[in-house]
Amino acid sequence: MPLTFGCSRPARLTLIAAMVLGACAAQAQGTADAGATEAQYRLGLYQRETGEPYSAIETLETLLSANPSLNRARLELAVAYYRTLNYERARAEAQRVLDDPRTPENVRLSVLSFVKQMELEQTIAQGKPHKWEINTSVGLLYDSNVNAGPDNAVLGSSANGLLTLNSQFVSKSDWGYTAQVGAQHTWQQPAPVRIGESTGRFQWISSVNAYHKGYHNFSEYNLSVLSLATGPGLIVGQGFRGNLNLQVDHISFGGNELGLYTSLNPTITVRGLGGEITTDLLVSQRSFSRPTDGGRQGQFRSFGVSYGRLIGTQASVQGGVRTFVENTREDRFSNQGHEVFVGGRIQWAGIDFFARSAIRNARYDGVEPVFDVARRELERRNEVGASYAFLEGWLQKWQLSATLANVHNRSNVSLYGYDRDTAFINLSRTF
Q: Is the residue at 66 inside a domain?
């Protein structure tokens, strides 16, 4: 009698039941795994779209380590790397999707377009880490009060009687010219910088600039400035930029050395309230060469906050406030105060029109000789202008600008009260 192997009927029923239960359990586990995968996928998308691209990268990479064939998650990972300016990793993840034969043709075309866009942006961002700009301008000017002198030689009275100013110090007008040339070098670090959940670009900007203003009749009021500046900068997406600028200005007046200004100027701009908010601090050490200016030597500090925004695509407005303190060797030159300004710009018929108005209030510490009072000043400055960029012809890429400005300065010490009107016409270009 041959040997047979089998189970009794109850035993077979028990085995079948076990197999059915096992299959149901496996199906339930698969459903649970699919739900967990979908939840993790959606979390990665949510993190990326709510400004947390680095967290999204971690989430999607964890998901892909368990599900390497999940190409839709890999494409979202490529976009997350792209958002952090990591073009190499973004292209690598996109290429893995392209290399998968299961990728549909319509998806493949979209991915190829995405890769081409990344290659173009990478070439622009990283292809030229060094950038040079040369700028120059020439212009003509009219100045109704070259020496910022009072209109009247009779200044008023003091404890010693009536005061009369020497006529050579009364306001006098002249025309002249301006000339400027400068160069700026910008180095941008090719690799992006991670700052929390944001990505930034580090820069180092250096410049040299020479400016001269010369008068036709009164050359003793000619002004020349040679400036050297350098410092780091950081741009984080569309919402933040900042820089720290160290600048040295060598100033000549009337053909003679006047002094040296050494300044440190950090600036931060952030997006907010529908526009941009800028804060800046200026600390300047001012040294003078002429013995007669020895009492002016000291430190100047100012802090400003401004707000600007676009109105449509053709106009913009800006306003702000600034406080300042100047401490000098002689108290009569030490002062503090504030300035408020507002301005706007609009483009119409290819011409850029602009206007600016500012009020500056200053209070001096020391008593003025002869007048025997501490000086108080209120300056009102109004400026309007227009500019036009040539798009063709022999002046192509040059810009023509014209500006009219009025300064009305009032002081309790009549010697320092004056009115001044200036008109500029200027031709400039950046190479």
A: yes
